[in-house]
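Continuing from the previous page...

OK, I double-checked the sequence for Angiopoietin-1 isoform X3 against my notes and this is the correct one:
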Amino acid sequence: MTIFLSFAFLVALLTHIGCSNQRRGPDSSGRRYNRIQHGQCTYTFILPEQDGNCRESTTDQYNTNALQRDAPHVEQDFSSQKLQHLEHVMENYTQWLQKLENYVVENMKSEIAQIQQNAVQNHTATMLEIGTSLLSQTAEQTRKLTDVETQVLNQTSRLEIQLLENSLSTYKLEKQLLQQTHEILKIHEKNSLLEHKILEMEERHKDELNTLKEEKENLQGLVLRQSYIIQELEKQLNKATNNNSVLQKQQLELMDTVHSLVNLCSKEGVLLKNAKSEEDKSFRDCADVYQAGFNKSGVYTIYINNISEPKKVFCNMEVSGGGWTVIQHREDGSLDFQKGWKEYKMGFGTPSGEHWLGNEFIFAVTSQRQYSLRIELMDWEGNRAYSQYDRFHIGNEKQNYS
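Thanks. Re-ran it with the corrected sequence; updated structure tokens here:
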């Protein structure tokens, strides 16, 4: 039985060596096994069970309620002896196992050292391979990082160049913006000046409009007064027409007398011819000028009866057959007609522009023969109107030229 157990132990020892913790317990066949760990290795021992029912369960042993077996005392003594024998055998096994353990440890030292050395070499080789691989990967990564760094540097350089270009463009734009801002300020100043000038022009325009309105009102009042005067003149003209006929007869008689005196006084034909030539150049009014062949409107010299000096008048040769002697002309308001009695008596202004011929000259002209009066008006829009009277004559100063 001892030999069998030893052989079973060796088989168990040789078939199971591993690295684990020490553990005890039964196997599937009902036998117990022991594990002993030494260093990194574990030894497993299988022990067989004793024949017969040597042990009672703890439950049967300590449970007071369990039923006790009806066994004789002889069997109990035999079991005790057998148990003591087994304990003795177990002590022997234990001693033998300790020796065997020491033997195994001594014999396994070299193998374990060899295994460790091989493991170290394998580990070193593996580490070298891993290191080589890591170096290769590191070199590759370094190369890639170098390429990436180069690309980053190139990109950074391009970005710096682009940034410089953008900065330059920004500086130029800022400079242009400042120039445009300065120009805009100048334009604003000019606009302000123009607005101020426009406001001033509007004020002047308003003043001029007000002035024109006042002048228009004055002209309307003047037209009304002139209409009244014209009506009065028509009345006076009708009265003076009769007197004019008498004066014309007297004038004709005087002319005949003068011609007779000239004929009597002239001794030679040359003197008579010269006298007739001078007489032909003496125009009483614009009608004589027109009949003499002058058909252009302008300033001409006439010789009025009872007036010692010739008088320059404006003759209108275009309106209603021509030959009209202009006694008053107003056009642009350049001449002030707010005059006194003396100025209206002797006349004022220039015949080629705005003027008044003079009441004394009008009286002298209308006293020569029968005349017609034509009054023409034109407004600001160019609309014309006129009034014509077939007979016109005024009295002298004593009659207030009426």
